[in-house]
Design a protein that fits this description.
Strands 2-3-1-4 form a four-stranded antiparallel β-sheet. It has about 160 residues and is of the alpha+beta class. The protein has two domains: about 10-50, Orthogonal Bundle (Arc Repressor Mutant, subunit A); about 70-145, Alpha-Beta Plaits, CATH 3.30.70. β2 (about 100-105) and β3 form a beta hairpin. It has helices at about 10-20, 25-30, 35-50, 80-95, 120-130, and strands at about 70-75, 100-105, 110-115, 135-145. It is elongated and about 55 Å long. Helix content is about 35%, strand content about 20%. Keywords: DNA-binding, Transcription, Transcription regulation. It holds the Pfam family HTH_24. One of its GO terms (molecular function) is sequence-specific DNA binding. One of its GO terms (cellular component) is cytosol. This is Leucine-responsive regulatory protein.
Length: about 160
């Protein structure tokens, strides 16, 4: 497996169902896609081996865990080349508050999604963490006031 074309309707149904609830047993999943457990188990292993399923996770409530202050931070590096980009990527991977990072086009080089407890924490984070990155040129922060839609799956 390597391309979307190699997935049939049942594979897509399995993926859609798992996006809704990854804790289903093989037997429960089989019932939902109208197959027996053995072929569903084999399809699951094939989908995992083919990289269609990256991992299974629990989605936590950021508010209840005092990490509900969400910031999208656009970062522009002073200059950009392969080594600087690789170094920035390595640094960002090690910062737990950064939950997502995208290399983007336009006026900025990267878009970071950052979870923090509050504005004061974020201010300290900018000064003591992001601000210490040597290649950082500038940044612009956008604070999330309300989350209107947050879907973890992709449309299949």
């Amino acid at each position: 497996m390597g391309t979307f074309d190699k997935l049939d309707k049942v594979d897509l149904m399995i993926l859609r169902t798992l996006q809704e609830n990854a804790r289903l047993t093989t037997k429960e999943l089989a019932a939902r896609v109208n197959l027996s457990s053995t072929p569903v188990f084999e399809r699951l292993k094939r989908l995992e081996a083919g990289g269609y399923i990256k991992k299974y996770i629990a989605v936590l409530d950021a508010e209840k865990l005092n990490q509900g202050f969400i910031v999208f931070c656009r970062v522009k590096l002073r200059r950009l080349n392969r080594d600087i980009a690789a170094d920035f990527s390595r640094i960002v991977q090690e910062i737990p508050e950064v939950t997502e990072c995208y290399n983007i086009s336009g006026s900025y080089d990267y878009l970071l999604k950052i979870h923090a407890p509050n504005m004061k924490y974020y201010q300290e984070f900018i000064l003591n963490v992001l601000g210490t990155i040597e290649s950082l040129g500038s940044l612009e922060s956008t604070f999330v006031m309300a989350e209107l839609k947050h879907q973890y799956g992709i449309s299949l």
